[in-house]
Amino acid sequence: MPVKVKICGVNSPAAVAAAVSGGASHLGFNFYPPSPRALKPAGAAALAPAVPKGIVKVGLFVDADDETIEAVLKEASLDMLQLHGDETPRRVKELRRRFGLPVMKALRIASAVDIAAADEYLPVADWLLFDAKPPASMKGALPGGNAISFDWALLAGRRWTRPWMLSGGLNVGNLAAAVAATKATHVDVSSGVEDSPGRKSPAKIGAFLKLAAAL
Hints:
The structure is a single chain. The chain contains 7 helices and 10 strands. By secondary structure, the protein is an alpha/beta fold. The longest helix is centred in the last third of the chain and has 13 residues.
């Protein structure tokens, strides 16, 4: 079965076009200002019309307040919220109720303890996303998009009552191994399809999607 792909951090018409033509299932728009992939609401609003129905437009937020999310949604039409910070299950529930959109909760993984924390979000999140937790020694680390992976064996044999995505340092060189180890049916990629931080490569996007479709 082909692996479905979310291209995260799209911030240019060329990146959107490559993701759409390559068959991405989700496109992620980043609204975390410190990220090199960050967009203003108007920037996302300009890109969103090029995304056809059937491809999920996801807004990535990190511990954002209601006003920040509301300002984005007033300008950009999104289909899902991705919470990539330290949002509690209660906060996930509040945002889902307030904005009426499905929510994907990202969890940063370094050990089995981090995996176990996913259970707290099952009653309130629509999706889970497993990303790599950056080491404490990593300077300038972002909540995600750091081009690092975690031990995929931590996910081996695990099942959840919610759909989930695998993220963290994925690229064409390790995608097949990651899917084989975790049995992921959905993956999320950002830095792995870039020429430099924040600069998506249409060619790399196309290659990643082509490989995922063949798995």
